[in-house]
UniProtKB/TrEMBL annotation:
NCBIfam families: ahpD_dom. Pfam families: CMD. Gene3D superfamilies: AhpD-like. This is Carboxymuconolactone decarboxylase-like domain-containing protein. Signal peptide: none annotated. Residues 23-93 form the Carboxymuconolactone decarboxylase-like domain. It comes from Cupriavidus laharis. SUPFAM superfamilies: AhpD-like (SSF69118). InterPro entries: AhpD-like (IPR029032), AhpD_core (IPR004675), CMD-like (IPR003779).
Length: 159
């Protein structure tokens, strides 16, 4: 397998700004458990092993139930998610895989029943942010678990 570029080393200023942007989500209207579900789902859809690994560990550290983590991939069939969480997951999916004709009104209207305009704006920025990370980590084949100590993810006790 070809050794890929370390984008943190090659573009340190851009990487730092993206980290700063991501840190802003701690202070948005979107609650932490939903942020983590969104980050996991987008990462699953994008095939980003590094981010799936990272966000499952983060969710576990923050007290997320293990069964819910397994059910993120099957959220439509699962009974473990609230209407607000389901709306966030639907929004994540439609923005991660944008249909040829854009976001359907039906999905927008359904999400708006659960989120205020400010919350929907914050949620949309969150989805955009995780999709950016996914694209970087997939492009440069970041190894799952390779930054666990740096991000404190070794505390998840998942091996």
């Amino acid at each position: 397998m070809t050794q890929r570029t370390n984008y943190f080393q090659q573009s340190p200023e851009l990487s730092k700004k993206l980290l700063e942007f991501s840190a802003l989500f701690q202070n948005t209207t979107i609650e932490q458990p939903i942020r983590e579900l969104v980050e996991i789902r987008a990462s699953q859809l994008n095939g980003c092993a590094f981010c799936v690994d990272m966000h499952i560990k983060m969710a576990k550290i923050h007290g997320e139930r293990e069964l819910r983590l397994h059910h993120v991939a099957i959220w439509r069939e699962s009974t473990l998610f609230s209407p607000r969480e389901r709306a966030a997951l639907a929004w994540t999916e439609v923005l991660t895989n944008i249909p040829a004709h854009g976001v359907p009104d039906e999905i927008y209207d359904r999400v708006r029943t659960q989120y205020s305009e400010k919350e929907l704006s914050d949620l949309t920025f969150l989805v955009g942010g995780i999709n950016t990370w996914n694209r970087l980590n997939v492009a440069f084949r970041m190894v799952p678990g390779s930054s666990d100590k740096a991000f404190g993810l070794d505390k998840a006790n998942l091996e």
